[in-house]
Design brief:
Blueprint (H helix, E strand, L loop, with lengths): L1 H12 L12 E4 L4 E7 L8 E6 L4 E5 L11 E4 L4 E7 L8 E6 L4 E5 L11 E4 L4 E7 L8 E6 L4 E5 L11 E3 L7 E7 L8 E6 L4 E5 L11 E4 L4 E7 L8 E6 L4 E5 L11 E4 L4 E7 L8 E6 L5 E5 L11 E4 L4 E7 L8 E6 L4 E5 L5 E2 L8 E6 L6 E18 L5 E16 L6 E9 L2 E10 L5
């Protein structure tokens, strides 16, 4: 039974035709109503850890990473009422990761200072607007200290807290004029190329984005508005078309789509383009999930979907068809980091209903076949297969060797002197089962993957 489960798990992972691959989710229990997740190294061991905010139990769950994609049991730290968003930065200049949590029920930010062992001080409160829904950190005034920006859902404004570098903040300033109705999420980037940090805010009540250009001294100008889909609830920024200019993408809850706006570099954006999504889009992030050095998107889907949708970027501002990977019940928020040290973008998903965090490890095989410091991708399609399959690598290879291992690590087949980009692989007499493949060149491993052979019953 365990062997059959392994085959099914690997079959799930090997969606190589789509050039993106995540293994089955592994779930770690958190608190009640897990609302948001962030990753950082909280105990100084060089490994990625997790922090999850739990809206009903009013706490933060800290999970220590092992560096293998696994995490220890949660340690919980109390914050204030109904925490909904979290960010990690160094707020007191000791080079140790701290936490800031937006508390929707107490109209405050809780600051938790890390001690470097994975533990934190008692929460220190700072007042903001009513109904804070999202918090981010950046240096908004150029003094080298981490500052905070908070989107306040009920007062339709943004709070700015400038850090002192000592674990405290100056007086809160608010931007109330025309920000937009019911701001749900915000992001910071340089949208006009002047070196100052700007803000983009997703307004769930007015179906638009407000862009506030920063002056570099902690002050922001009047908002400019850009229409998106219906009820945007999350926003991210990256370079989606390779012009080194910050673009924007939103997840839109009511219209079940994502909106992409390409930046002009002047603080403005081009025409809106929407891409279909699953019901209940609740969170959106950007990372390179298939190793092609182009920005992709990942969307967490709450409601009945309970999954994560990956959109593969083309590098010209468009995205391929959506590919879904299951999380747990009520997939609400997600982040990406490398949890097992293989230099690939993994996922962590905070699940509102199942009260846990799902970790999905990226299982795409990449290598540097051309030895040009660029990752190559090896795809296997179809996979599983019964008689033959095709292996395809993104770069031309010369005089390489393909080695096939069975599940016990024994070499069962070897093909030498391979040249080109495509290998037509024949099963021959190999029995059904799981196999591991390695491509080597001059005794150096250049990439690896897996496939499954099954017996077809006519």
């Amino acid at each position: 039974m365990e062997y059959i489960f392994t085959l099914l798990a690997v079959a799930f992972c090997l969606n190589m035709h789509a050039q993106v691959c995540f293994g089955p989710s592994v779930n770690f229990p958190a608190g009640k109503q897990s609302r948001a997740v962030i990753s950082n190294d909280f105990n100084g061991d060089g490994l990625k850890d997790l922090a999850v905010v739990n809206g009903l139990s009013n706490d933060v769950s800290i999970f220590m990473g092992t560096g293998t994609g696994n995490f220890g049991a949660a340690n919980n730290f109390l914050v204030a009422s109904n925490p909904v968003s979290i960010i990690s930065d160094d707020f007191n200049g000791d080079n140790i990761a701290d936490l800031a949590v937006a508390n929707g029920g107490s109209n405050s930010i809780s600051l938790l200072l890390g001690d470097g062992t994975g533990s934190f001080t008692n929460a220190i409160p700072f007042a903001v607007g009513v109904g804070p829904f999202s918090v981010i950190s950046n240096d908004f005034n150029g003094d080298g200290n981490a500052d905070l920006a908070v989107a306040n859902y009920s007062t339709d404004d943004v709070s700015i807290l400038l850090g002192t570098g000592t674990g405290s903040f100056g007086a809160t300033s608010s931007y109330t004029s025309g920000v937009g109705r019911h701001p749900r999420s915000l992001i910071s980037a340089d949208f006009n190329g002047d070196g100052a940090k700007d803000l983009a805010i997703a307004n769930g009540g007015t179906d638009n984005i407000s862009v506030l250009l920063g002056t570099g001294n902690g002050i922001f100008g009047s908002p400019t508005y850009f229409a998106v889909g219906s009820q945007p609830v999350s926003i991210t920024s990256d370079d989606f078309n390779g012009d080194a200019i910050a673009d924007l993408a939103t997840a839109n809850w009511s219209s079940n789509d994502i909106s992409v706006l390409l930046g002009t570099g002047t603080g403005s954006f081009g025409a809106l383009v929407n891409f279909v999504a699953n019901p209940g889009t609740s969170s959106i992030i950007s990372a390179d999930f298939n190793g092609d050095a182009k920005a992709d998107l990942a969307v967490a889907n709450d409601a009945d979907s309970n999954n994560v949708t990956i959109y593969i970027g083309t590098g010209i501002g468009t995205f391929g068809s959506l590919i879904n990977f299951m999380a747990d019940s009520g997939a609400y928020s997600l982040i990406s980091a490398d949890f097992n040290g293989d230099s690939k973008a993994d996922l962590a998903v905070a699940n509102f209903t199942s009260k846990d965090v799902s970790v999905l490890l990226n299982c795409l095989s990449v290598g540097d076949l051309a030895k040009d410091n660029k990752k190559e991708i090896i795809s296997v399609y179809p996979n599983p297969f019964s008689s033959s399959t095709t292996l395809r690598i993104t770069t031309e290879f010369q005089e390489s060797t393909l080695i096939v291992y069975n599940s016990y690590g024994i070499i069962v087949k070897q093909i030498n002197n391979i040249t080109g980009q495509i290998i037509n692989f024949q099963r021959d007499n190999l029995p059904a089962g799981l196999y591991f493949i390695r491509m080597i060149n001059e005794k150096n491993e250049i990439t690896k993957s897996k496939f499954i052979i099954f017996n077809r019953h006519e």
